[in-house]
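pasting input
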Amino acid sequence: MTDAKYFTTTKKGEIFELKSELNSDKKEKKREAVKKVIASMTVGKDVSALFPDVVNCMQTDNLELKKLVYLYLMNYAKSQPDMAIMAVNTFVKDCEDPNPLIRALAVRTMGCIRVDKITEYLCEPLRKCLKDEDPYVRKTAAVCVAKLYDINAQLVEDQGFLDQLKDLLSDSNPMVVANAVAALSEINDSSPSGAPLVEMNAATINKLLTALNECTEWGQIFILDSLSNYNPKDEREAQSICERITPRLAHANAAVVLSAVKVLMKYMEIITDQEFVSVLTRKLAPPLVTLLSSEPEVQYVALRNINLIVQKRPDILKHEMKVFFVKYNDPIYVKLEKLDIMIRLASQANIAQVLSELKEYATEVDVDFVRKAVRAIGRCAIKVEQSAERCVATLLDLIQTKVNYVVQEAIVVIKDIFRKYPNKYESIISTLCENLDTLDEPEARASMIWIIGEYAERIDNADELLESFLEGFADENSQVQLQLLTAIVKLFLKRPADTQELVQQVLSLATQDSDNPDLRDRGFIYWRLLSTDPAAAKEVVLAEKPLISEETDLLEPTLLDELICHIASLASVYHKPPSAFVEGRSGLRKALPAKLAGETTTSEAPSSSSSSAPQVIPSQDSLIGDLLSMDINPPAVIQPAQPAPFGGGVDLLGGGLDALLDVGVGNTATAPPPAQAPMGGGLLGDIFGLAPSTTTYVAPKTLWLPAVKGKGLEISGTFIRKNGQISMEMTLTNRAMQAMSGFAIQFNKNSFGVIPAQPLQVPSPLTPNQSCDVSLLLNTSGPVQKMDPLNNLQVAIKNNIDVLYFAALIPLHVYFTEDGQMDKRIFLSTWKEIPTQNEVQYNLSNMTHNSDTVVQKMQQNNVFTIAKRNVEGQDMLYQSIKLTNNVWVLTEIKIPPGGSLFTLSVKSVTVDVAPGVYQAYENILRS
Amino acid sequence: MSSSAVFILDVKGKVLISRNYRGDIDMGVIEKFMPLLMEKEEEGNVTPILLTNECTFAYIKHNNLYIVSITRMNANIALVFAFLHKLVQVMIEYFKELEEESIRDNFVIIYELMDELLDFGYPQTTDSKILQEYITQEGHKLEVAPRPPMAVTNAVSWRSEGIKYRKNEVFLDVIESVNLLANANGHILRSEIVGAIKMRVYLSGMPELRLGLNDKVLFESTGRGKSKSVELEDVKFHQCVRLSRFEVDRTISFIPPDGEFELMSYRLNTHVKPLIWIESVIERHAHSRVEYMVKAKSQFKRRSTANNVEIIIPVPGDADSPKFKTGIGSVKYAPEQSAIIWTIKSFPGGKEYLMRAHFGLPSVIGEDSEGRPPIQVRFEIPYFTTSGIQVRYLKIIEKSGYQALPWVRYITQNGDYQLRTN
């Protein structure tokens, strides 16, 4: 006999009929009726009207019936809160039933009824159940505390349940310990302050490790997850926990394995014993590989996590390339993830195998997979230089297949290969051009156009090719339009003689016939650039491009570290921090623990960096994007020239054309020397006449020498940097009774080798009560001696009365040079190279700027913004500074949205400059 | 934290049964699951985890049913999937088969199980043998209400006390599956063995078992490095095995669950010749015909024999009029799989057989291009392990001191055995 019959009553007046059955005297009939009610509930019918009648059946000695009534209550209590109260008595009574199964059932169900009035009555029974003699009841009660906390956190804290829960961590029964840990972790996670309410200490950790060996597989996961939130106090503790956790890697349950991996990955950060780390690393590989034989969903989770692990510790799986080879019957989501990891693991040693696999994949039928495989070949070429040639050959083979989407994808990646290895593979351009007609996707078209524009001088019919695209200009995707505009301008600059008509055509299409503001603006920029100064246009448009980097899609290191702490969780699958998809949880962001040894060196900093993990500008994919568009996206230009007349295009170009022809046709040696790429603000400013004079921030003058000490001479002053020159601005006042004359100045050796570049010129005599302003140019070619503080300058001034000595502090920003803009890639690698202990963190409070004004303000003071990213609504600026003594300083500023507290991290090989840099930021941003 | 609620849906997305564990998500969100899944499938970027504004869906599919977990938090997703698979397993152990009908027939007990398996999203007892002691299909027939078995909360949560057998016996099956991936040129890309030791335990009381294998690490540590031994690359154990003990001295000691279970699995890479090697020559004459010449070679010892060998050779979906020629076994065309299946009941070691097939092809070519699925092989070789693993002893100690007999059986079979074709 099955339960299916309960679903079959479909008569009219069903509710009414059920009501009478529920109130029947016969037990059997009652039970049948409750089952019918539950059956109706299951298929989604609303049976809440029967609430009182069902609750009446609650008092029964039949366990099955009781469970069904409880189930009903959980479903409908919320909609009938007043009536739910009727059930309280029975709950309380059941919590004292001699049968532990019923006691547990009652306390479990009560916790699931999220009605405030019921919650009040829950406290007493819960208190008892937490101390119940039966572990089955205690383990259920432990979870119930978490339920109650979710409904009413205050109540849990007031009633002391947290302490009781903590006591359960020492329970003799491993299941109780496991559930108590789970409940505590959840409570800690949701604590409003973000700080854990119950701290773990070494003693509790020890108890957990003991329980770990005895509890169920799920309990093991709860314990491991909670261990991953614990920060061992020293390396020894971390090692000993690792040793006790490692056996879990041999558990059959994949989730136990991944949680153990999480703890190990986190604790490895603290451990400096390289031997120990390498043993652990070796032990991690086999279980990770075995995860790939589990169910496809688990494989997917494992692969997403492995993606993180190979970014963090590439060594672990470097010899395991083969296990990521795609099988024909893998689900598509597994295939795509495996491809990603194959690229990450690709190296010179295994590239041949990888390539032959990728080629195989590229001939499959699943379009998405094939595309990704083709892309992967391109990425291999960029990553493993030795293989580039083979990759290009493979791509050419694939282009020969003439499969449309393969060809398009191949062209997109070949564009990147050209960027990486300029002047190496251009011989294949003709093959590419053969496929021009088949390209229908914007990205492929744009890539092809880019290639034509970039190599216009080598493609005889480049003008014809580009012209053919121009015919349907209006119908093209904006990406293609922009690229076409740039390509034609490049072509024109390279072959001005016969392409003038073409460039005018495209400029007029872009500026007059298009309503896309980007396109129009870019059109105008080119137009004006070409008409005013074709030579400059050439420098700008055809500037040498920085190389693109090897790795793509790398996660930002801070994010990566955070995600490592979230291995096995959704965050690790999404590759996003939990705050990105979990609502309303403020919770602390997790970070890998800092190497304990490193902390002493940074202790001098006011607030030493809490996460010493290197924070780098990241994600080269955006970098590529930026660099690629660099030549076509110059900052907005304010050109005071008269508005261009729209009609007569020929005239417009006329003036500039001659000059351009001169440059192009004439002896190239006369062409202006290839200037550096116009990236620095100063240079751009020069070109466009943006900033006529550049004076950096000027600190107010301070009193350096009071008259009392100066025998009547009072000196106040400041230092400024103007047009790349440092000068000392002084006000000399004669407070003495006699005139002063014969002024001279001398500096002691100092940290930056500052010396006067000219003699001190003070109008002599300086009569009593007269004051004069003097500007003394300085340079930094003098002898160097480290001062304390670093920016201290000892000055001697001589006059007819005496030699006077005083000290002045030179604000560090005057040493910031105009060429302090670092290349992005160099910045990235420099940031990585500088050891973590050279990073110092400061807080800048009460700031009112947004990131744009910060960029602007700092730029005026030769602090150059290399990258700007938005992480979680928080702007991150990465800036570089070069000091006159060629010391580079890299900084990162975190600007919370609307917040006033910025965090400044300063990194430099010479960490001594950090306080000065911080002071400079303070001064500049507050000016 | 893991699941806020668990749903079982039919193939159209209709909820068959559900359980709300945390009450933090409106159960109505499940309506969005199917449309979202369809959309993702259409776009070709379907994953087992789907994110929406309200929650994350994590699902597995079993027999036309979707088992879906929803959560709003940063759940331990590995645990969620492990649990969903466990849920299916428990239901199968309860109802033989988990399908739409068995859910309707047993909804009362499924509710009870769901209540017991997961509490507030945290998995609890999931061992079906233990569950069956207090959650029974004939619950209402019991005069005395059941109590939670000791095992639910014990350190030994997988075995109840007081089990009795007249004849105490243990059966051990050592089953090795060979995974092989070879490319069209005959290069072996990957070859590994995934072994499993499955047990059927019919023992009284609380027996303490110790299993001895010719494990290389153990042999080397005990100075028997020269004996024939096997290097296991990764070993996974059932919950019952004391992992820390294994970590210390490689001893596999445990109190087994009652009845059938998988004690351990292991994995190792091999460099041995593929047991059954297939060479194929495929000649496609577009618009007219396609011809296959397939050679199967057994590359194991002559005294072993592979049974029930099936060689599955994919053919184009639009092929017609099949013709076969072979000296041994039987060949049949399975149009539903777009493949021919060459079956050889008994394939001794060191032999080589040949099969030819011929198909007609239509003169017009279809729009859809077809993939090139690999040739797959199924086989079973009894009394033989590729790795050479051996059970050296199984010690059984129970305080009543009975004698028990262990039986061991070895078998090698195909795992994921794929040979790509041109």
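fyi Chain A touches chain B through 113 residues (CB under 8 Å).
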